[in-house]
Amino acid sequence: MTDQASVLVIDDEPDIRELLEITLLRMGLQVECAPDYTSATRLLQTRDFDFCLTDMKLPDGDGISLVEYIQQHQPELPVAVITAHGNMELAIEAMKAGAYDFVSKPVSLEKLRQLVERGIQTSASPAEPVEQSLYQIIGESEKIRSLHQTIQKFARSQAPVLIEGESGTGKELIARQIHAQSARAIAPFIAVNCGAIPTELMESELFGHVKGSFSGAISDNPGLFKSADGGTLFLDEIADLPLAMQVKLLRVIQEKSVRAVGAQQEQSIDVRIISASHKDLAQLVTEGHFRQDLYYRINVIDIKAPPLRERGEDIILIARFILQKLSQENASAYQLTDEAAEALRAYHFPGNVRELENILQRACALTDNGQITRQDLNLPEIQNNAENPSLTLIDKTTELEAEELEKALQQTRWNQSAAARQLGITLRQLRYRCEKLGLTKNR
Questions:
Q1: Which of 167-171, 350-354, 408-412 has the lowest mean pLDDT?
Q2: CATH number of the domain at 386-443, out of 3.40.20.10, 2.40.10.10, 1.10.10.60, 3.20.170.30?
Q3: How many other C-beta atoms lie within 10 A of the C-beta of residue 81?
Q4: In angstroms, how far apart are the furthest CA atoms of the chain?
Q5: Over the stretch 256-286, which tens digit does the pLDDT of each residue have?
Q6: How far apart are CA 206 and CA 209, in angstroms?
Q7: CB 337 within 8 A of CB 319
Q8: Fold of domain 141-306
Q9: Contacts of 341 (CB under 8 A, 6+ apart)
């Protein structure tokens, strides 16, 4: 807690103001109170504060208007709003406007103290510059500049974030960047793929369990929510959550507490939720496969991860960044030839950045002199496949390559040296491709 940090409290009810003031004074804070919007803005113009707490309903305005005023004049000042019990719509609207967080009436003094402590810590912690973060988002395109601005604006908020975008666009990277620029940066960042957890273990994995609560529970498990306490929980592919688990997740987000399987009492948690999906959640809501109330709750801040084809000027920057990492890992120097760079610029990248990384890893394994050519990239060509139109371009190319390799190997009775000569590639290249494609003599 910062020594003698100052808090501005705005509420038109004298009893509430007095209760909040006493609570904050006991925390060792300086407190100024205002009964309305006009008095609050006058105080904001004359002195600096470390945190602001305002009721949603004011005699001459509302909390959202005050949030917007602070965003315009003092964007670094965290402001939390007090909402009527159950009025989640206004709370979400306030966070979309830039509010740091919210607390519902009747106000829990314990949760209030936690909220203020976090808020003051946020105010005292400067955001980490993007270029100094371990998890860099490479690019200079307009879409990436806009993405950086969005991350910087909302990183210091507590509002839930939903990141939507195609597979391979770097949704987890965006989530990590939000965490790295927040006051939670020193706390855990826990990532979980919701589609990778067996349904029968999902509740235990997320919320924890106590020893003996079910067969196989040989020890206590805190769960992923508790493991992320104080930090960020990244729920990747949240669309894969079963409907029954969506109900439980909604309650955890609203109540900010979890109950482990087999436990008698709930435990408070302080976790920021960042979700991601490559599916259209709004469409899934319409189809009845995703709960509307949960979608509304996690989609307070919506961030779109742009596909690589929409940021063409970034392709070579990203490629060179990847090659620099691969050069360090392999103690070799890799460079793109001009022809290879041009081919990458022209390619549409259905698999986005992840596909680019895979293409370059393969090319580095195939090149003999570190100079990556167009042939080393082995980019898929646009083809029509009437027999199986559902195959992606990558699938089609991989299938054709596997057929050619297997054909050559069968003709040479699986003599790899002879097959490599027949195909006009090196033995090293043949072995690499066989390993990648899973080609074995007994396939």
A1: 408-412
A2: 1.10.10.60
A3: 27
A4: 91
A5: 888 888 878 888 888 999 999 999 999 999 9
A6: 9
A7: no
A8: Rossmann fold (3.40.50)
A9: 316, 319
